Amino acid sequence: MDLMQAMTERHSVRDFKEEPISEEHVEELRNYIDQLNTDSGLRIQLILDEPKAFNSLGVRLITYYGNFRNVFNYIALIGKKSDSMAEERCGYYGEHIVLRAQLMGLRTCWVGGTYRKVPAACELNKDEKIFAVIAIGYGNNDGVPHKSKEFSDVVTSYSGEAFPIWFKKGVEAALLAPTAMDKQRFMFSLKDNKVSVRVFPGPFTKMDLGIVKYHFEIGSGIKIF
User: Fold this and answer.
1) 132 and 60 together in one domain
2) Quick check: is 165 in a domain?
3) Which of 65, 43, 67 is nearest to 130 (CA)?
4) CB under 8 A, 24+ apart: contacts of 197-203
5) Dihedrals φ, ψ of 101, to 5°?
């Protein structure tokens, strides 16, 4: 499986097996996260065997999208409060981990506000905050595809004219990206072979922007932003 296949097959999973993540997978995740932290300036952390964030007093956390079950492991996406780009970078580099986990046979779910923050579970400095978390583990299912907009819905000035193949593939990959409440509040444009993407106001859209950018890069094969 390559990243394109992982991106196509990966869906949000909220129901996990009780088995712990294997030592081999833990080591691979930690090494990968260390590398991403060096590249990004973030302080992403893997939290293991911590049930409080998704389970309070034995009651399963219920969200609009359904129950979270057996979430004992998650990725905390941490950056500096004063960094205006931290949220976008959390999306960009967090999606690296999500797709890497898919390649490893793990399943994931992006979680914004519907979890209990447990600061003591990770190393958190006063000038830092947890922007979001990613539930991770071995899934009891593979999730289901989200409803998606069409290419013409997320490209400005689209009138059926021929776009370069690389651009089309990039946008199609972006449409596979997980976004807050599956709203896909983003819009691409292409002018003089320069790609731009913007997001509309809404919860976690800065994080969505980072996720969408990474998907576009995978699909187009070009790191163009």
Assistant:
1) yes
2) yes
3) 43
4) 197/225, 203/112, 203/113
5) -60, -40
Choose among 110, 118, 103, 102: nearest CA to 135: 110
Write down the mean pLDDT value for the chain: 91
Q: What's the CATH code of the domain at 73?
A: 3.40.109.10
Summarised one tens digit per residue, pLDDT across range 53-92 is 887 534 444 444 458 899 999 999 999 999 999 999 999 9
pTM of the model: 0.92
Which residues, other chains included, contact 57 with Cβ-Cβ below 8 Å and sequence gap of 6+? Answer: none
Reported as a single tens digit per residue, the pLDDT across 154-190 is 999 766 668 999 999 999 999 999 999 999 999 999 9
Phi-psi region of 55 (alpha: psi -120 to 50; beta: other; left: phi over 0): beta
Backbone angles phi, psi at 76, to 5 degrees: -95, 120
Number of domains in the chain: 2
Pick left, alpha or beta for residue 3 (phi over 0 → left; psi -120 to 50 → alpha; otherwise beta). Answer: alpha
Q: Are residues 113 and 171 in the same domain?
A: no
Residue 57: inside a domain: yes
Higher pLDDT among residues 160 and 26, named by residue:
26
Residue 145 lies in a domain: no
Domain that holds residue 175: 151-220
Reported as a single tens digit per residue, the pLDDT across 82-120 is: 999 999 999 999 999 999 999 999 999 999 877 777 777
Instruction: Tell whether 112 and 15 lie within a shared domain.
Output: yes
- CA dihedral over 49, 129, 201, 186, signed as positive or negative: negative
On whether both 133 and 170 belong to a single domain, the answer is no
CA angle 161, 164, 167 (to 5 degrees): 105
Same-domain pairing of 118 and 201? no
